Amino acid sequence: MTAQQPQQPPPTNGPLLPVLAAVTYLASVIAVFGFLSLFLGRDVIEHNDAGPLLGPLMVVAAAVVTVLALVRVTERPSPWRSALVTVVTVYLAMLGVGALAYSLGRGQPLWFVFFITEQAASPFVIAAALLAGGFVGGLWMLVRRMNAP
Question: What is the pTM of this model?
């Protein structure tokens, strides 16, 4: 009888991991928005005149920022700075894209300020930003664990 050698897992695909994490981030944001909307009894976008694309545009902006952070965090020695920068950048990107789309949709540039002041404390924007920071830190830890001897 010959002893079987333990089977090794296949090698990981480095560039694919951030993409998969970003897709998971998008799904998580949608799920968190649904739960927050259910538990708080609020709509994600409470403006009736906002149009159907305002929310998805804000989430796409958050996803783009998150993908860029996920790609770069794997090379960092520590995830904390990248995660914090990601949280702030996602928060500002969601507010900026949302305010720009809302004011362009209304045709009045002064609505830009109104949208930002109203949505700045939105639990949906805050949750998406915090979730992005969590994904950046989580991916960093996963890559470190996979590369550990």
Answer: 0.85
Residue 15 counted as domain residue = no
Q: Is residue 137 part of a domain?
A: yes
Q: What is the DSSP string of 86-130?
A: HHHHHHHHHHHHHHHHHHHHHT-TTHHHHHHHHHTT-HHHHHHHH
Helices 111-119, 80-106: crossing angle, 10 deg rounding = 140
CA atoms in the 13 A half-sphere facing the CB of 63: 18
Number of domains forming the structure of the chain:
1
Q: Do 100 and 112 contact (CB within 8 A), yes or no?
A: yes
Q: Indicate if the alpha-carbon torsion angle 27, 29, 32, 37 is positive or negative.
A: negative
Residue 36 in any domain: the answer is no
**36 versus 143: which is more confidently predicted?**
36
Structural domain boundaries enclosing 121:
52-147
